[in-house]
Design goal:
Length: 297
Amino acid sequence: MSDPSATQWKATLVLPMHLADGAGDLLQWAVTPEPVAVSTIELEEGETWAVEAYYLDAPEEAELEKLLSPYFSEFGLDMPEFQIEQLPDVDWVAKSLEGLKPIESARFFVHGAHDRNLRPAGKHTLQIEAGLAFGTGHHPTTFGCLSMLEEITRRRKIRNALDLGCGTGLLALALAKLTGQKILASDIDPIAVKVTKENAKANGLGPLIEAVPAAGFAHRRITEKKPFDLIVANILARPLVSLARDMEQHLAPGGEIVLAGILNRQGPMVESAFRDQGLKLRGREVIGDWVILHLQG
């Protein structure tokens, strides 16, 4: 993937708030067409949001419709029309991050470089620059995972954890801060692996983060390091269902799993897939249209 400053095209959808996050996730994870960045922006109307996807080459509207039509069909809706436009030669990824405000949880303060001066005393601080990877902590699923990991690590000692589908590495970095242990992170996107390593180094956590490219659990290092006390996977519902058996097989007895990227209506489907593998639901947290699941072996 090229330098984000070379981005030339933007595709925009204007949607009701409850549809924006799901559409944005589908665009973000698409291979065809592959985006440089995806953002969701609240419009003045409050209940209406713009979903913007940035591309190096002009995206075909037919490809975008093929990708998103099933999603809108689930809601009984027709595919809305995309606005596709060519952009001047500007670093739109950087611009999309400029307006992001810091995120504060019970034990963390997550910020961009432009908010370094706002860092409070008494909390773990993480500087995350998303670049070409997904996950700055602003999405409800990422924030929900962060809060759940805080609760788990307060209750038990975690010695061996995996962040599956790490994106920017935010959750892996948080686990390193919370546990003081070396954390294994993986992502199907090599760009995300690179960004995770860069973010680890920038936050002084380089020695504690090992990041590898992997589709699911298919990597030598994941096999070597199993079984895991804790696995966190913030991806999408259907990939989680397909990974349920592998996840159980890589989990230590009594180990815990945090799953996210799941719309509320998809929660029962994901719970059922993991229940079939003998995992018990410990809890769920609902944030808007999203649910974060906490399971244990």
